[in-house]
Design a protein that fits this description.
315 residues, binds NADP nicotinamide-adenine-dinucleotide phosphate, FAD/NAD(P)-binding domain, 28% strand, alpha/beta, 4-stranded parallel beta sheet, 18 strands, 7-stranded mixed beta sheet
Length: 315
């Protein structure tokens, strides 16, 4: 196993991690960025974004490619597709299948992932009718009927995206009012392929080899019914990616990492940025902003720490 040491190690190569890499790289410290997958994070799967300033419309993948190229400019060392075995935040040591990384500071930018419905059939039919990525799998549902679950921006936007392929899209929401932004709601209400199923939750997903039914329950009448669908796309929110990290530092009740305004966590020299931290807004722009703040304070931490070491020596 190869041993490598850096001033800063960034865990996660989505918008927060890549922005942190750019700012730390510019701060003239040695920076490595480590990810379980390829870089780009969640936005790589978004068809397009229309709220990243300077880019009225941009493909998610294209924007993330630009972030990565920008980080390359500052000599950031990249370690994609790493199989993480252990993360010890206090000693700042990260062990993967191939490397043992040590660092002076760690910036956690591991993001978040879709929450699961937790109903029978969900796990069993993943890849056979259950999907958490309309952009990845939408094309399989040409002229078919699908259900999207949830009422937030993700559910409504992905339902609209799926109407490019599917003949009909049910949007199943547990209340009778959407949580999504008004502008997004208005577009969805105008889309004739979307049928809203209000006050309802999915109780079970059924099928043979492939999904053919979503069993739904009306939460007000308690009546259950079968919706005949070829696919189910749950978009009911996100949960932080804190495997190997949870329990080592302060988190909120949902597991999101608590930071101060400099992105510092409860562990000295460890920062958290982007969707993984407790934050009121999770967007590419806020992730990038967090990354910038966290990296600047990580660099300051390294400088202060250096001074402390020097003064120790002088004493
Ligand atoms: P979200 O905003 O948290 O919405 C989750 C939705 O799922 C809510 O409508 C919620 O219902 C419903 N839900 C939660 N648990 C459920 C369960 N067990 N069963 C059934 N329904 C359930 O999550 P999101 O839509 O994934 O968005 C996450 C973040 O990314 C948000 O901050 C969002 O604004 C942002 N985002 C922004 C954009 C954009 O600006 N273009 C696009 C995508 C995502 P209730 O409403 O009843 O709570």
């Amino acid at each position: 196993m190869e041993k490598l040491n850096f001033d800063t190690i960034i865990l996660g190569g989505g918008p927060a991690g890549l922005a942190a890499a750019i700012y730390a790289g510019r701060g003239a410290v040695t920076v490595a960025i480590v990810d379980l997958n390829m870089f780009g994070g969640q936005p790589s799967n978004y068809m397009e974004l229309e709220n990243y300033p300077g880019f009225p419309i941009v493909g998610g993948y294209d924007l993330m490619e630009k972030f990565e190229e920008h980080a390359d400019k500052f000599g950031v060392q990249k370690f994609p597709m790493q199989e993480i075995q252990n993360i010890d935040l206090k000693s700042k040591k990260i062990t993967t299948k191939d490397y043992e990384f040590t660092a002076k500071t760690i910036i956690i930018a591991t993001g978040a992932q879709p929450m699961k419905l937790g109903v029978n059939g969900e796990k069993e039919f993943v890849g056979r009718g259950v999907s958490y990525c309309a952009v990845c799998d939408g094309a399989f549902y040409k002229n078919k009927t699908v259900a999207v679950v949830g009422g937030g921006n993700s559910a409504v936007e992905e339902a609209m995206y799926l109407t490019k392929f599917a003949d009909k899209v049910y949007l199943i929401h547990r209340r009778n009012e959407l949580r999504a932004d008004k502008i997004i709601q208005e577009r969805a209400f105008k889309n004739e392929k979307i049928e809203f199923v209000w006050d309802s939750v999915v109780k079970e997903i059924k099928g043979d080899n492939l999904v053919n039914t979503a069993v739904i329950e009306n939460v007000k009448t308690k009546q259950t019914s079968n919706l005949l669908v070829d696919g189910v796309f749950p978009y009911i929110g996100i949960t932080p990616n804190v495997e190997h990290i949870s329990g080592q530092l302060e988190q909120d009740a949902s597991g999101f990492i608590v930071t101060d305004s400099t992105m510092a966590t409860s562990i000295d020299g460890v920062f958290a940025v982007g969707d993984v931290r407790k934050t009121p807004l999770r967007q590419v722009i806020t992730a990038a902003s967090d990354g910038a703040v966290g990296a600047v304070y990580a660099v300051k931490y390294i400088e202060t720490h250096k001074e402390a070491v020097l003064s120790d020596v002088t004493l």
